[in-house]
Amino acid sequence: MRAVIIPGLVEMRIKVNPSTEVTRQGLPYIVMPWMFAPWPEAKEKGVIEIEIKGETLRELLVELSDWYKKANVDFEPINPKTREVDFDYDITVNGKNYIGLSKGLDTKLRGKKEIVIKMNWRWDG
Amino acid sequence: MVESLRKKVLSPSEQARYHRQWIIPEFGKEAQKRLKSSHVIIVGLGGLGCCSALYLTAAGVGQISMVDFDVVQRSDLNRQILYSEEDIGKKKVFIAHQKLSKLNPYIRIIPIPHRITQKNIMRIIDQAQVVIDGLDNLNTRLLVNSACVSYQIPFIYGGVSRLRGMLTTIIPGKTPCLACLFTKGGQKNRRLGVLGVIPGVIANLQSLEAIKCLIGESPSLAGKLLRFNGNDMKFQINDLKRNERCKVCSLKFSLSPNKAFKA
To answer: Are A121 and B166 inside 8 Å of each other by CB?
Structure first.
């Protein structure tokens, strides 16, 4: 599948197999710039296009984690060993938390899907 | 002893007390005097706040105000190291005041047993040189952040859960503020649990950042987010950028154009 990644203000948006050109329309700023790390050329363009071998949410997240690992950036929304989502992150598919999806991480990403990965900050003291 | 606070000299007892600090070349006697004439406010006396209060008291910060409305509960005792079994049910700030005064009688400790609100926050922090975050929720942090931006007071954010923690030093006008990242209700406050030593790790780093601010050194985490993962003992530091549409700091401080993407 083709995934187009748009680093947002504090989250990462991924559009799967988009039928139209993806731009940064409405997302002018990025507060966490390290999200760009593995794709320095994306700093110019603002969006990142990659080809993912698998077709499920889990496969997308595992591959994404691999990309960041190669760039020595600690961005692992999914634990590569357990292949489960790290609690540091919230992940939604078309606005719905993946936990609420009938197949969870094994949901196939067909059609116009938008995945949002958001890093959770810590609020306990 | 409070009299000695007014003087910017260190008594023989204080000199002996802080000797191990001022022999550090990059710290020295002058830095110790600066600490003595400083005022820090710690908002929240939970796991983070207790630890910050303890080390800043020992370090010799001249005036420490502590804000917390809550009482000690048994479930606090795994991480809130100023309290004991006998303190359960008592107001945290008064217990902390009592114990910290014994640790260092050469400084002034001010307990403020109030809940932070929109109405009182400006009054509470207006004399501070640094505000240290020991809170347990986002909304109160945003209130404190906004007040710190208004007064241009450095605010040292810290947060923990489970075996992980993070911190950043907010210098109004120079670094992103909390509202650059989050608006009210932006993230849920979920109780995830916390291993007692984790707030100790983060609060000590917050205290170090506070000391650097107070003695005129550049804080190392200004505009940077430090994330600590105790599961695999990993520290990660990443840059944070200001949000030019931030409703709190972009209105007060005009921003120079950066590499924002044209929408």
So the answer is: yes
User: Could you give the count of Cα atoms lying within 13 Å of B132 in the half-sphere of its Cβ?
Assistant: 38
Tell me the C-alpha distance between B207 and B254, whole Å: 29
**DSSP β-bridge partners for residue B107:** none
Burial of B86 (0-12, 13-18, 19+ CB in 10 A): exposed
Task: Residue A10: list chain B partners with CB under 8 A.
Answer: 181-182
Average pLDDT over residues A75-101: 90
- Residue to substitute from B140, B145, B164, B261, interface A, most A β-carbons within 10 A: B261
pTM equals: 0.91
Smallest CA–CA distance from B224 into chain A, residue: A32
C-alpha to C-alpha distance for B62 and B36, rounded to whole angstroms: 4
Predicted complex: ipTM over 0.95: no
- CA dist B173 and B234 (Å) reads 30
**B41-83 per-position pLDDT tens digit:** 999 999 999 999 999 999 999 999 999 999 999 999 999 999 9
- Within 31-70 of A, beta carbons closer than 8 Å to B belong to 31-34, 43, 46
Residues with Cβ within 8 Å of residue B76, at least 6 apart in sequence: B46, B47, B83
Q: Distance of CA B96 to CAs A75, B67, B110, Å?
A: 39, 11, 10
Does any CB of chain A come closer than 8 Å to the CB of residue B11?
Answer: no
Cα A86 vs. chain centroid, distance in angstroms?
13
Can you read off the two tokens belonging to residue B90?
A: 């008592």
Q: How far apart are the first and last CA of chain A?
A: 42
- B118 CB burial (10 A radius; 0-12, 13-18, 19+): exposed
How far the first Cα of chain B sits from its last, in Å, is 60
DSSP class of A113: E
What value, to the nearest 5°, has the Cα angle with vertex B45 and ends B41 and B49?
Answer: 65
